[in-house]
Amino acid sequence: MRPSRWSPARALALLLMVAVWAGSGVGVYLFLSTHRGTLANQAKQPIQQAKNGPLRRLPGTLYLVQDGTLYRLKTGTFTPLLRRAGQAAWSQPAIGADGQKLVVVRRDPAYSDLYLVNLAARTQAQLTHNANRTIENNHWALYPRLAADGSTLWFSYDPKDRFNSYNVVMAVWSMPLGASASQMRRWTTPRDYTGGDVQPVPLASGGVIYTKYALQASANRIMAQLWITTRAGSVGRALTPADDDCSQPSLSPDGRRLAMICTKGRQVSSIEVAAFDGTGIGPRTVLVSGQLAAQPTWAPDGLSLVYFAAHGLSGHFQLWRQQVPETSPPPTAAPSTPQPAAPPRGARVAPPTPTPTAPAASPTPTPAPVQLTTDLDFDATSTIAWHS
User: Fold this and answer.
1) Cα distance between residue 37 and residue 22, in whole Å
2) 108 with 131: CB under 8 angstroms?
3) Which residues contact 219 (CB under 8 A, 6 or more apart)?
4) Mean pLDDT, consecutive 10-residue segments, the chain of 388 residues?
5) CA–CA separation, 166 vs 190, rounded Å?
6) Cβ distance 152 to 175 under 8 Å?
7) Contact 141, 156 (CB under 8 A)
8) DSSP string of 212-255, one letter each residue
9) In what order do the strands lie in the sheet with 152-157?
10) How far apart are CA 57 and CA 300, in angstroms?
C-alpha cells in the first residue's frame, strides 16, 4: 500500500518551514523600517521651518502653497492664511500692485473657482461660480493674474465644446475684477485635445503673454511654447520654438525681462531669462540647469528670482533663490577714424601701425542658486506671489 504524502512528520516540517519564511519576512521588514531614509520621511509644515539663515533675509512678502494651504512668508516666518478644507484646496495666488488684494484658486475635485481676498480686512469674495449639478457642465478657472492697474483679472478658463464633452481645453480670458461672468472676454483659441492656453501674464500695453500647448509633429508629443497676443481674438505669435518646450512665463517688475522654464522635452529643466521689448524676446540666458524646477518668480527689485525645485531622495519641492545678473547695455559702435589721403605715386610709405584691440570682457559668472527651505514640500503646480 502506498504511504500517504501528508504524514504527521511531513506536515510538521511544512508548518515549521512556513513559520521560518514568515518570520524572516517580518524580521527583514522591521529591520528595514528602522533604517528608512529621507525617501519615507514626511514633509514638515512650513511653520516648523527654521527662521534663521537666508530665508530670514528674503525681502518683502511671499505667498505660496503646501498641501492645499496658503501660507504667507515674511522675515522668515510662515503664517497660514487659508487652510485646506477636506478636498477643497487653495492654489495659485496672485497679488495686486497695492499688496492688499490677493486672487487665489479654490480647487474642488470636479471644478475650481477664483476668490478675491482682502488682506487688510481679511474678507473673501467668490468671483466665479463654476459648479454644476451635471459634472460635464462644470468649469475650471486657473492661473489668475491681476493687471498692473488692479482693475482687470486675467485667467485660464475652459470653454465647453457642446459637441464633445471630452475636448476640455483652456483658453485665456479677462474680465473686470468683481464683474459677472457675462463680462468675461475670450482672448485666445486653444488647440483641441492639448490642454490649451494657460499661465497668462498681462502686459502694460494691454496684450498678454501665455503658454500654448500643441502637438509637435517632429517629437510626436505635446510641447509648450510662449506666445504673445496684442488683442482679443487675434492669432498671436510664438516667442519660443516648440522644440524648446518653454512654459511658466514670468515678467520682471520693469517689464524688460522674461523668465521661463524650458525642458527641451526632457525630465529636467532650466530657468532661462531673455530681454523683452514689448513685442519679442532676445537671446535667452540659462540661469539654472539640471534641476526639476518650476514657478520662477521675480523679486520686487528685479535682481533675483525664487522658484521651486525637487531636492533629495524624497523629491519634495523646496524654495530656492537665484540672483539674476543685470542685463548689459548693447555695445556702442566705435567712432570712425578718417582715412589719410593716398600718397603720391612712387613715394615711400611706412607700414601702418596696428591699432591695439581691447580684450573682450569675460562674462560675469552667475552665482549658484541658494536653497532656502528644507524638509518642506511645496505645490510645484502653484504659482508664487511676491510683493515688496
Assistant:
1) 25
2) yes
3) 243, 265
4) 53 48 42 42 88 90 98 96 96 96 97 96 93 93 96 96 87 96 95 95 96 89 96 95 97 98 95 97 97 98 97 93 74 43 51 47 75 96 97
5) 15
6) yes
7) yes
8) EEEEETTTTEEEEEEEEESSTT---EESS-GGG-EEEEEE-TTS
9) 141-146, 152-157, 171-176, 185-186
10) 14
Residue 318, SS3? strand
Find where cell 488684494 sits. 101
Rounded to an integer, what distance in angstroms lies between the CA atom of residue 266 and that of residue 262?
9
- Per the CB < 8 A criterion, the answer to whether 24 and 16 are in contact is no
- DSSP notation for 96-110: -TTSSEEEEEEE-SS
With 0-12 / 13-18 / 19 or more C-beta atoms within 10 angstroms meaning exposed / middle / buried, residue 110 is: middle
Residue with cell 480647487: 107
Set of cell numbers at residue 356: 591695439
For 187-221, give the DSSP string.
---PPTTS-BEEEEEE-TTS-EEEEEEEEETTTTE
How far is residue 210's CA from residue 240's CA, in Å, rounded to a whole number?
11
Residue in 226, 248, 253, 238 with CA at minimum distance from that of residue 324: 253
The neighbouring-strand residues paired with 198 are 211
Alpha-carbon distance 182 to 150, whole Å? 20
